[in-house]
Amino acid sequence: MVILLESYVGCKDFKGMYGLVTELHCARLSQTGRGILTNERIKEFSPSEEPSFGMTQYKGTLLWTDATKTVYYSINPDRRIRVRYVCCSNRFQAISVLGDCPQASTNPCSYSNGHCRYICLPNDGGRSRTCVCPDNEPGCHKEM
């Protein structure tokens, strides 16, 4: 499991700068074996700049807002490309990402309960179904 943590370095003693820091962690599902793979500062804010107001991640790209401007920024640490986008007439209050929506598919249980007598369970990504009977039902006929 790989986890990307984004955090602010808000310490004014740190050369008078704010920073956006990424830490890439590799961890097992248990708490053992966790280690920091990378820890680098990818954006510093000057004392005159307001630090980011909101931040999110999508497919390896970090996106953040500027609390005083009508823009948002993005950076992909792997590609070292930083982009500024002009967006709205008002300042941002937050930022979030909506991922790709999966393709619509038919549910094999949606029509006539999948021709199951009792319980229809879609499986294989909705391409097939399994009919099951209630517990302790002797001689149950699963399908109609």
Automatic annotation (TrEMBL):
One of its GO terms (cellular component) is plasma membrane. InterPro entries: 6-blade_b-propeller_TolB-like (IPR011042), Cueball_EGF_LRP_Nidogen (IPR050778). GO terms for biological process: canonical Wnt signaling pathway. GO terms for molecular function: Wnt receptor activity; Wnt-protein binding. This is SJCHGC03981 protein. It comes from Schistosoma japonicum.
